[in-house]
From TrEMBL:
Comment field (misc): The active site is a redox-active disulfide bond.
Pfam family, one: Pyr_redox_dim
Disulfide bonds: 49-54
Cofactor mode of binding and number, as noted: Binds 1 FAD per subunit.
Subcellular location: Cytoplasm
Lineage start: Bacteria, Pseudomonadati, Pseudomonadota, Betaproteobacteria, Candidatus Kinetoplastidibacterium
One GO CC term, this protein: cytoplasm
Name listed for the protein in its UniProt record: Dihydrolipoyl dehydrogenase
Family: Belongs to the class-I pyridine nucleotide-disulfide oxidoreductase family.
């Protein structure tokens, strides 16, 4: 006899496991199904984020940043280190340890919250009076039934046309995280978050990195002033970033990859690299759901159609995270997971798409929330801008990292904060204050009147808010 649950969540990534935990907290019987395995074949919940995305990339970024600091910047602090060397095997091993700790943490949370976990692929097999039938492709082909189903199966890397990932020469984010040697020449197609982060990791460790971006301008999703500063800094660091590129062909030649392309001036060029990272976006992972059997509406790109509350066209079937509209961000999936669990319980879940922050964990870090200047100009909105450089911040000077600035954009009439954009040290942490202010529809004056501890990087946000009214105190 099939086991019966109030809620079955398919997928244990950031959206899925959080949805399962919140549903359990609200008194429902919950199961979570996830197929991800580690190299030993053990269950590895956490999805792309934990296994081959957010967590391992940040581990490598931290390790590579330490390596670069030790080799190039420790001497500025009076720390002399001779004959610095890289133990790449140990560096990758540390990353794997961090990933495993996160996997085990999620399994512990399932146990703590009385969530039944099934290791295997979950797919629809029909409908009964008790709800939806879910078949789990595990060692025993388990069948379970749930009144509500939450689909949180995430996404997978998009391949370049006619160039499949072999994870040896042509790498997705997965292969880029587990190279066993530092490539002399590394190519990156796509100058977005993944491309810049992975390019930064391997540049710090010794690679000659070239980033090829199709868009005419660098980081077009970011504020243009931030993007210009980022391009200047990354170029100075040694990343060769080319925009407006049109790729003609990519060929595997022995142990190398040849990329033939036209640059922004329509000049034909060839780039030969030892490894090629392809980071041109991600596609929703819905192929194995058997959705056609039950009539679940999925578009030609694989996205599941949902309303504003994440309801699909089927009763009591919900979808969240990368498989639905909106930004493919772990924290967006988490917020939707909580909201859906609360809606199932009859509460009013909350997700504000206007205050979802974006972060790029390069050095300097880049983070923003709300609208940028070019968007507001397109909307015809009257606004004022205040900026403050980290060069004038005492804590940044003490850290030895004064790159970048904070930018606050506020409505001209109401002073409501419309967007905050940061490039500089710890931008990923600093952006949270801006998110909070905007969630409460606060003003630049609100930020300016709040006491910030001294000396801290967060004072730069206060100073930028003061600058909106042209009364910055330290610049």
């Amino acid at each position: 006899m099939s086991k019966q649950f109030d809620v079955v969540v398919i997928g244990a990534g950031p959206g899925g496991y959080i949805a399962a935990i919140r549903a359990s907290q609200l008194g429902m019987s919950v199961a979570c199904v996830d197929a991800w395995s580690n190299h030993l074949g053990e269950a590895a919940p956490g999805g792309t984020c934990t296994n081959v995305g957010c967590i391992p990339s940040k581990a490598l970024l931290q390790s590579s940043e330490h390596f670069e600091q030790a080799g190039s910047h420790f001497k500025d602090h009076g720390i002399d280190i001779d004959n610095i060397s890289l133990n790449l095997k140990k560096l990758i091993s540390r990353k794997e340890t961090v990933v495993k700790q996160n996997n085990e943490g999620i399994l512990y949370l399932f146990k703590k919250n009385n969530i039944s976990f099934f290791h295997g692929f979950g797919s629809f097999s029909g409908q009964t009076e008790g709800g939806w039938c879910i078949k789990i492709n595990d060692s025993s082909n388990t069948d379970i039934i749930a009144k509500h189903v939450v689909i949180a199966t995430g996404s997978s890397a998009r391949e370049f046309p006619n160039l499949p990932f072999d994870e040896k020469l042509v790498l997705s984010n997965d292969g880029a995280l587990r190279l066993d040697s530092v490539p002399k020449k590394l190519g990156v197609i796509g100058g977005g978050v993944i491309g810049l982060e992975m390019g930064s990791v391997w540049r710090r460790l010794g690679s000659n990195v070239t980033v090829l971006e199709a868009m005419p301008n660098f980081l077009m999703s970011a504020d243009s002033q931030i993007a210009r500063e980022a391009l200047k800094v990354f170029t100075k660091q040694g990343l060769d970033i080319q925009v407006g590129v049109n790729i003609d062909s990519i060929k595997i030649i022995g142990d190398s990859v040849s990329i033939n392309y036209k640059d922004s001036k329509d000049v034909h060029k060839e780039l030969i690299v030892d490894k090629l990272i392809v980071s041109i976006g991600r596609l929703p992972y819905t192929d194995k759901l058997n959705y056609s059997l039950v009539g679940l509406k999925v578009d030609d790109k694989g996205f599941i159609g949902v309303d504003a509350d994440c309801r699909t066209n089927l009763p009591n079937v919900w979808a969240i995270g990368d498989v639905v509209r909106g930004p493919m961000l772990a924290h967006k999936a988490e917020e939707e997971g909580v909201a859906v669990a609360e809606r199932i319980a009859g509460q009013h879940g909350h997700v504000n798409f206007d205050t979802i922050p974006s972060v790029i964990y390069t050095s300097p870090e880049i983070a923003w929330v709300g609208k940028n200047e070019q968007q507001l100009k397109q909307d015809g909105r009257d606004f004022r801008v205040g900026t403050f450089p980290f060069l004038a911040n005492g804590r940044a000077r003490a850290l030895g990292d004064t790159t970048g600035f904070v930018k606050v954009i506020a409505d001209t009439k109401t002073d409501e904060v419309l967007g905050v954009h940061i490039i500089g040290p710890m931008a990923s942490e600093l952006i949270s204050e801006a998110v909070t202010i905007m969630e409460f529809r606060g003003s630049a004056e609100d930020i300016a009147r709040i006491c910030h501890a001294h000396p801290t990087l967060s004072e730069s946000l206060k100073e930028a808010a003061l600058a909106v009214d042209k009364r910055s105190l330290n610049f």
